[in-house]
Amino acid sequence: MEKHNGNPARQRKLRFGIALLLTAIAAFLVISHLSFSSFCPQHQTSKPKKQNVIFMVTDGMGPASLSLARSFKQHRDGLSIDDILTLDKHIIGNSRTRSSNSLVTDSAAGATAFSCALKSYNGAIGVDPSKNPCGTVLEAMKLEGYLTGLVVTTRITDATPAAFSAHVDYRWQEDLIAEQQLGETPLGRTVDLILGGGRCHFLPNTIPGGCRADQRNLVEEAIAKNWSYVSDRELFDSLDGGKNVSLPLLGLLAPTDIPYDIDRDSKVYPSLAEQAKTALTALSKATEDSDKGFFILIEGSRIDHAGHHNDPAAQVREVLAYDDAFKAVLEFADSTDVETVIISTSDHETGGLVTARQVSPSYPDYLWYPNVLLNSSHSGEYLTKKILTKKQTKELSPESFLSFIEKEIVQEDMGINDYTSKEIAEIQVSADASAEKLLYYLNNMISVRSQTGWTTHGHSAVDVNIYAYSNSKRINEILYQREAYAGLLGNHENIEIGTFMETLTGVNLEKVTDMLKDIKHHPEGKRASVNGADIHANAY
Ligand SMILES: *[C@@H]1O[C@H](CO)[C@@H](O)[C@H](O)[C@H]1NC(C)=O
Ligand SMILES: *[C@@H]1O[C@H](CO)[C@@H](O)[C@H](O)[C@H]1NC(C)=O
Ligand SMILES: *[C@@H]1O[C@H](CO)[C@@H](O)[C@H](O)[C@H]1NC(C)=O
Ligand SMILES: [Zn+2]
Question: Record-annotated residues binding Zn(2+) (predicted)?
Fold first, then answer.
């Protein structure tokens, strides 16, 4: 009797069926492994998809800065209480900010935590606690074929952008930072686009606006190496919003800082949002045909300065200018097919800002006055310069100086009508003492009247917010994990943000660290023996 499986046709069918089943199982295993590994960064074995990483920093912005700016905007624009900032809609967690040597970090250690994913000491730029250079996410991504950019409102050689693109023992080595940012590193050039202030450390101190000690003109050198260079609003506009950019681009739009947004003349300086949009358009266009996207750092640098100055009128405008930039970046992410992640956080809080202040011995009323900030139309920094310039006027009588202070500065610029003659006299005394004393006196007049509190001219250790957004379901599933070194939901150590970017892109920071061993990073000459007090004077 014939067995069923003895029939050759049946056997063929059976074999075919088994083969089909095995193929299906194999296919299932491959597919499930692929999708599992793309969810789980620790198991990322497949090549990551094309993606853009947009890392945004609000230097010195603590949670109180948000409350202050939000209430200010609602008051100014007559908005309802549920009309919140764009940032508010994307909060995902908060970050613990201490450095390796202090509970209160500076911007250098704060940015190195993001860029190298490690804790270092206050003042460290892309070096570890033993002063060994550490590979950054920007460098690692550049070596993998991504394009890279830095966009700031302060000096491009300042701590935050420097910690992504340079390696020096102390943040004040800005001449050396500038050289490295233009490519004088064992890695070659790692930055494709620079937009911000800070021409000073690219130009010799023998020409106006220059401050390099070694007489090199890095701008001329960069142009000779085919960087395109823009140094003013007109040239910035010729970039046509990023559509007319030839990379690498060196955009140094001010000798040092770009003015505070409250003082900014839009005919002379672009806003942070304009700079960010231009950079995103340029980088997106330049990576159009690449299988790699770009990394960009965008910093609202001067929220920190307003905190150091204890200037609430300047700070609310800085935060709102950043919020506009954040909105523009979100719109970019929603307009591109490339998987894009936006992370926005602060390196630390500055000023110990609180949105209430007891200004009399009697128990305080529960309020603060945003209209005082609205009435003030310039920063303390701007008014200090204006007063000290006026003071230089030849044959200026004490009476006309006092009248200038009263009418032009206090009434017109600061919008204060309830001043006392003692305050006017104090402004004059402070102007004789020092620029710093004058600055602090003017800002205190606004702070007390608005009942805004400050506890320090330095930094504080309060946790800062983390905001995030992605146009990709895959990336969102990673972002919205709570565990340390996985996603960014909840409370995290600042270095986890660096690790997040490293893991998401699958780059290898250690490989870059190995390549950086021979980079020049120690200070030379007289300042090499700089003492702690000098370093402190540079610690912003
Ligand atoms: C600059 O560009 C020109 C023209 O494309 C090219 O011939 C030259 O080699 C480039 N120089 C450098 C230093 O890259
Ligand atoms: C584009 O940039 C070049 C310089 O790189 C400039 O000469 C030209 O005028 C720009 N075009 C526009 C439309 O601004
Ligand atoms: C703001 O300025 C207006 C117009 O000068 C003035 O009437 C008002 O008192 C000022 N408000 C505050 C809080 O100083
Ligand atoms: Zn900072």
Answer: 59, 304, 308, 347-348, 459
